[in-house]
């Protein structure tokens, strides 16, 4: 028997590596398409689940006709998707080339919207003042004499007289102590507003017996009473810049036209002016109208009555002063002691 070697032979097999063709990144594109398709599927499922039948019809119509054309012109598509908060679906109307929709919006709708917003603010302010009157220990006893209403000028607060509780003594412009308390209580609230104030005085139709219309004292008395209310408000903190105008109306605007002598016709009204009326008041200023006023002597003779006549003997002014100093002058005669007027 043949004797085997103690060492085993080692056989090494070498395999030749064959270089294969590169596969590239085509699978990445396929993967991206698949992911995008899944996202689109999830989006479609979400839209279907969160929309109603009408919205789904609008979405379908939009993809069918995203841009609408009529007679060769681009017009708004009738398939407008409205999911809340977007403009409402409009009719398929062609855009006019001669009218700018933005200008129409600015001229009409924006102005109307601004007026509506200010009206809403006035209503909220009315409710706030009414609540303050009810809650105030000073104002609540007089709530029947405090009237709030909205006018074309703004929010008006009227303080009216009562037979047993007038704001002023007859024929006087001196505020009663409780009338002054009312104005002092209202002043902090009024001074905190952005609106300027119009203060108007009113009287009833009472007056001096047998007086001429041109001698009616109610005009001056209503003006003095309005100014007394203005003074009390300013003493309580209302700034001068907030006072737009102080007016005396006499007995021309009674609260009860059917009874012009009623006590409620004697009142003070404080109006918080709206923007439109306040601009009209500001427009009365002579410095903002673009008109230059120039005083020029046009060469009139010295004795021309149109020439200013001051401190000259024999002038028109001297004649007027002489007539004023006559004993039978009807303009400055004081009223008789038994005459009673408001």
UniProtKB/TrEMBL annotation:
Segments forming domain OmpA-like: 155-276
Ranges annotated as spanning the membrane: 26-48
Start and end residues of each stretch annotated as Disordered: 279-342
Compositional bias segments (type: Basic and acidic residues): 319-329
Domain of life, source organism: Bacteria
Keyword check for Phosphoprotein: no
Membrane topology: Single-pass membrane protein
Entry keyword annotation includes Transmembrane helix: yes
Protein name: Flagellar motor protein MotB
Source species: Thalassolituus maritimus
């Amino acid at each position: 028997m043949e004797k085997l070697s103690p060492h085993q032979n080692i056989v090494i097999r070498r395999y030749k590596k064959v270089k294969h063709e590169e596969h590239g990144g085509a699978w990445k594109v396929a993967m991206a398409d698949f992911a995008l398709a899944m996202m689109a599927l999830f989006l479609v499922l979400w839209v279907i689940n969160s929309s109603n039948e009408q919205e789904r019809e609008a979405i379908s119509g939009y993809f069918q006709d995203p841009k609408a054309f009529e007679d060769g012109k681009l017009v708004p598509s009738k398939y407008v998707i409205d999911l809340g908060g977007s403009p409402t679906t409009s009719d398929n109307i062609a855009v006019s080339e001669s009218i700018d929709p933005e200008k129409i919006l600015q001229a009409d709708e924006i102005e109307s919207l601004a007026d509506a917003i200010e009206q809403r603010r006035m209503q909220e302010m009315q409710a706030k003042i009414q609540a303050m009157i009810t809650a105030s220990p000073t104002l609540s006893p007089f709530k029947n004499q405090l009237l709030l209403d909205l006018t074309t000028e703004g929010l008006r607060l009227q303080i009216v007289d009562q037979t047993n509780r007038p704001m002023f003594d007859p024929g006087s412009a001196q505020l009663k102590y409780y009338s002054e308390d009312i104005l002092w209580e209202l002043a902090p609230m009024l001074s905190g507003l952005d609106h300027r104030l119009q203060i108007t005085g009113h009287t009833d139709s009472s007056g001096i017996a047998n007086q001429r219309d041109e001698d009616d004292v109610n005009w001056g008395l209503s003006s003095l009473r309005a100014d007394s209310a203005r003074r009390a408000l300013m003493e309580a903190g209302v700034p001068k810049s907030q006072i737009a105008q102080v007016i005396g109306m006499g007995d021309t605007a009674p609260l009860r036209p059917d009874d012009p002598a009623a006590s409620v016709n004697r009142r003070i009204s404080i109006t918080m002016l709206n923007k439109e009326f306040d601009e009209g008041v500001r427009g009365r200023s002579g410095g903002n109208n673009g008109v230059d006023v120039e005083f020029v002597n046009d060469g009139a003779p010295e004795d021309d009555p149109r020439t200013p006549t001051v401190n000259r003997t024999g002038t028109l002014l001297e004649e007027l002063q002489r007539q004023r100093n006559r004993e039978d002058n009807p303009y400055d005669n004081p009223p008789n002691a038994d005459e009673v007027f408001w």
